[in-house]
Amino acid sequence: MKDKLKKFDDFLINLINIKMSHKYLDTIMSRATNLGGVIFSSLLVVVLILIGSSHIKLMGFELLGVLAISQIIVHTLKMLLSRERPYNIIEHLNTFGIDLKDYSFPSGHTTASFSMAVTIALNIPRLSILVFIIAMVVGVSRIYLGVHYPTDVAAGMFVGCFTSILVHFYLLEFVYNIAEALGLK
Question: Which of 22, 75, 148, 168 is catalytic?
C-alpha cells in the first residue's frame, strides 16, 4: 500500500509541479494558494461576523469553529507524523523560493479551503460549485508550488470536509453558545 501511495504521489507531483509548469500558472498558483492561508481565512471570518446579516454572522461563527478545530487536527498530525516537505526530498522540483519550517502532512491550506468551502456550501448551497472549484485550485496550488505531496492535499481535503460536517451537524449549537458566552454573538 505504501508503495502505491508513493507512486501516486510521485506521478502527480511530477505532472503538476514539473510538466504543468508555465509562467502564467506560476502567477495564478502563487496567488491562489493564499486563499487557503491564515490571513484570508481570518479576514473572511471577521468580515462575515462583523458585517453580515444574522444568518451570515452565524455562518461566520460556524466557520470560526470549523477552522479552529480543523487546524488543531492539522498541526497535531504534522507534529505526530513529521513528514518532510517534497522540496526537501525530491530533486529538480520547482520550489518558487518557498522554505517552510513545519511539516508537510496534511496540507493546512487545503484543509482551510475545504473547511470554508463545505461550510459555505452547507449554508448557501447556490455557491457550492464556485467554492469547491476555489478549494480545488488551492489544493492543486500546494502541489504546483512544491510544498505538498498529493496525499497531503487529499488528507487536507478529508480533514476539512470531515470537520465542517461534524461542526455543522453535531457541534453547531455548542459553537453558537461559546460565541454568545464570549459576547461575540
Answer: 148
Q: For residue 147, which of 93, 80, 75 has the smallest C-alpha distance?
A: 93
Report d(CA 89, CA 120) in Å as an integer.
36
Give pTM, 2 decimals: 0.91
Q: Is the pLDDT of residue 184 over 70?
A: no
Select which of 55, 75, 109, 168 is catalytic.
Answer: 109
Residues 34-46 have pLDDT tens digits of 999 999 999 999 9
Phi first, then psi: what are they for 112, rounded to 5°? -65, -45
Grouping H, G, I as helix, E, B as strand and the rest as coil, residue 84 is coil
Q: Is 75 a catalytic residue?
A: no
Amino acid at 68: A
